[in-house]
Structure formats: structure tokens, C-alpha cells
């Protein structure tokens, strides 16, 4: 499996993923012109010289090098909310108290806001069901953090992930249905499609501007606040294991939680190692045994490129801490387009996370 930047030739596969991902995955819309523009923007972002995050959007694909099949996608938005406003509901707590009557109550209140403008966002992760296999989901998720570790100047100090919220078998969101009845007469698929196409400001103009007491919503909508789609639970667990936390901001359409973390506190970034690389078969085996660490760990490994970025997984690497050198089989070097002595980055994939194989992680407005 190889992770690489998306190209024009990936359009048919990307459109298939947009269909397969379904309503609510509004960073990929089944609209050919939209997807063409998204690919073009990603290709330009990878080529661009950057010293601070701006409007770049990095979209990667997971490819089976033996067949050429595109297995899934994963992406990063460098700084959200500048081109199109990024709206959330902030959940706050209001306490009402009457000392005279000895009564008190606490209510949750929803406030529409733009809290995360300028933050980086991990998004667009979708592993196609027919390609689910060992390490595929983990590589799609963790490779974004490896890319951030190698190119920190391209990303903001705070990183967020918008998680897909609760929806029924018919694809409808119980949370949105409560708003549709009273404020915006658009079904969930239509409103998320419009949001994905960039019409967030127009939708927000129709949303209530005053705080909303969440208990005024029906029970299904109320229970959906801050909860994730059942297929997204492993993805949430994986992100929380990286240090992401829910702080009370939810998506305005399906009420899925937004998780956040400081970029440098992400475990895969903090624990990643930059070093030189060398072919394993050309190395003295005695040196590797005496000075190396090799516990058959599965690692994500990436070259240091941007437009020529490549990443893969291997369990056949030996790390020499004393020499700050990673020894890998020759075919891995070829997959990464690396030569002996090149600088690479790697991070260990926790064995405990093997069961967490997300089909999809997040959606971006």
C-alpha cells in the first residue's frame, strides 16, 4: 500500500468514493466539477512553497501498487474558515436559580459560532469497504500526522477533526430534522451537499441567531448532540488515542462532535522520528543486532517530500538509535522513491490500535 498526493487520473476513483461515502460526508460531493476543482486545488497546494498555513488543501490517496486500485482517501486542510465560514454550535451551560423559591436548574444552550477559523483540519478519510485490510485504516489516519511532523510550517498550532454525527438507515440526521421543520426547509442530503459546495454562509443566514435551549429539541435530536455515527466510533477512539478531545463544539447539521488538539501534542507527531535511511540487505547484520531496535513493530514511514510525498507501512525495519538510521528492505526504499542516505520520517503504529480500522473518519464543511 502506498500513500501519495492525488492527481488528475484519480478523478473516477474519487467520484466513486464520493458516492460510496453517502450523505454527511460533505468534504467529498458527488459533483464532477467540484471534484475536479478539489483535485486541482490539492495539486496546487502540494506544489506551493509555504512558510505559513493559508488556504492549502492536501488530499492523498491510498493505492494498491500491484493493481493500481485506489483504496481510499485522506486529507488535511491547512487553515479552515477563510474561504468559506466554518460554523459550529458551541454548547454552554446556563444555570437558573431562584433563592427566594429555593429552586435551581441547569440547561444546555447552543450558540452558532466561528470558533475554529484558522485551525488546521484532518478530514476526508474514507477507506472503501472492499479494500479493508490490516493497517489500511491506521495508515490513512496516521500518515497525516507524519506529514505534519515533517512540514510543521504548513499547519496551524491547533488541529481539529469533525466527526460524522448520528444518522438513520435512510441517511437522515435526527438533529437536522428538528431544524428543518422550523428554520431551513432543506433535507439533510441537500443541505450537506450545499455546505460541501461552499454555501455555508447562505445556510447560516437561515439559522437561528439567538441561543437555543437544547431541551426544546425533540428527544432524538437531543440525544444526537455530540454523538458519532456508529461507523465512526473506531475513528473517534483512534483520534482520542492521539490526544484529540471533545470540548463542546458540534456540527450544525448532524451535531457530530468536533475534536481538537494542539498540533505538537499529537502523539504520532510527538513520537515521530526523523532520520536517514539505508537498505537493510546492504547492512552488516551484526551491527543491526548489536545496536538496533527491531521488535517487528509495524511502522508508518514517509519520505520527506511534498509534491513527491510517498508513505507506506512495514514491519521489517530496524532502527539504529546510536546512528539515527533506519534500515528497511530495498523494495520499501523503491516504494518511497528514496535512495540510501535520504532523510525520512517514521512513527510506530500501536499494536493496540490494530482493531480500530475506520471506514471513515471525518467530514469537512
Explain how this protein is built.
By secondary structure, this protein is an alpha+beta fold. The chain has helices at residues 11-21, 32-47, 136-150, 174-182, 188-196, 200-206, 219-224, 233-241, 267-270, 285-291, 330-335; strands at 2-5, 57-63, 70-77, 88-98, 103-113, 120-127, 158-162, 212-213, 245-250, 257-262, 273-279, 299-303, 311-314, 318-320, 325-328, 343-348. The protein has 2 domains: 2-87 and 114-265, Gcn5-related N-acetyltransferase (GNAT) (Aminopeptidase); 272-348, Barwin-like endoglucanases (Beta Barrel). A hairpin with a 4-residue loop joins strand 14 and strand 15 (325-328). The longest helix has 16 residues, at 32-47. The two termini are 29 Å apart. Residues 352-365 have low confidence and may be disordered. It comes from Tamilnaduibacter salinus. GO terms for molecular function: arginine N-succinyltransferase activity.
Features:
six-stranded mixed sheet; globular; arginine metabolism; 11 helices; ten-stranded mixed sheet; disordered C terminus; 27% strand; Arg_succinylTrfase_AstA/AruG; Barwin-like endoglucanases; Aminopeptidase; 2 domains; 365 residues; alpha+beta
Amino acid at each position: 500500500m502506498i500513500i501519495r498526493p492525488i492527481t488528475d487520473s484519480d478523478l473516477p476513483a474519487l467520484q466513486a468514493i464520493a458516492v460510496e461515502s453517502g450523505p454527511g460526508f460533505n468534504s467529498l460531493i458527488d459533483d464532477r466539477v467540484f471534484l475536479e476543482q478539489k483535485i486541482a486545488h490539492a495539486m496546487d497546494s502540494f506544489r506551493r512553497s509555504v512558510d505559513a498555513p493559508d488556504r492549502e488543501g492536501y488530499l492523498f490517496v491510498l493505492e494498491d501498487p500491484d493493481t493500481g486500485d485506489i483504496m481510499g482517501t485522506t486529507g488535511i486542510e491547512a487553515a479552515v474558515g477563510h474561504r468559506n465560514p466554518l460554523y459550529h454550535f458551541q454548547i454552554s451551560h446556563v444555570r437558573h436559580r431562584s433563592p427566594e423559591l429555593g429552586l435551581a436548574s441547569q440547561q444546555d444552550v447552543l450558540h452558532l459560532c466561528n470558533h475554529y477559523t484558522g485551525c488546521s483540519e484532518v478530514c476526508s478519510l474514507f477507506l472503501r469497504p472492499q479494500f479493508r485490510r490490516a493497517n489500511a485504516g491506521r495508515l490513512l489516519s496516521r500518515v497525516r500526522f507524519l506529514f505534519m511532523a515533517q512540514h510543521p510550517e504548513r499547519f496551524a498550532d491547533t488541529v481539529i477533526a469533525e466527526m460524522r454525527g448520528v444518522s438513520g438507515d435512510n441517511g437522515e440526521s435526527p438533529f437536522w430534522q428538528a431544524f428543518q421543520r422550523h428554520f431551513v426547509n432543506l433535507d439533510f442530503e441537500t443541505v450537506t451537499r450545499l455546505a460541501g459546495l461552499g454555501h455555508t454562509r447562505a445556510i447560516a443566514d437561515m439559522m437561528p441567531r439567538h441561543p437555543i435551549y437544547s431541551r426544546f429539541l425533540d428527544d432524538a435530536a437531543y440525544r444526537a448532540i455530540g454523538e458519532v455515527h456508529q461507523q465512526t466510533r473506531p475513528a473517534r477512539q483512534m483520534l482520542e488515542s492521539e490526544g484529540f478531545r471533545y470540548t463542546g463544539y458540534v456540527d450544525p447539521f448532524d451535531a457530530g462532535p468536533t475534536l481538537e488538539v494542539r498540533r505538537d501534542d499529537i502523539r504520532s507527531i510527538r513520537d515521530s522520528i526523523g532520520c536517514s535511511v539505508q537498505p537493510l540487505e546492504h547492512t552488516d547484520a551484526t551491527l543491526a543486532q548489536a545496536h538496533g531496535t527491531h521488535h517487528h513493530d509495524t511502522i508508518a514511514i514517509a519520505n520527506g517530500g511534498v509534491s513527491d510525498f510517498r508513505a507506506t507501512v512495514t514491519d521489517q525495519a530496524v532502527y539504529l538509535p546510536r546512528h539515527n538510521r533506519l534500515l528497511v528492505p530495498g523494495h520499501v526504499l523503491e516504494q518511497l522513491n528514496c535512495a540510501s542516505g535520504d532523510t525520512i520520517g517514521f512513527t510506530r503504529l500501536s499494536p493496540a490500535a490494530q482493531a480500530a480500522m475506520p471506514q471513515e473518519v471525518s467530514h469537512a464543511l
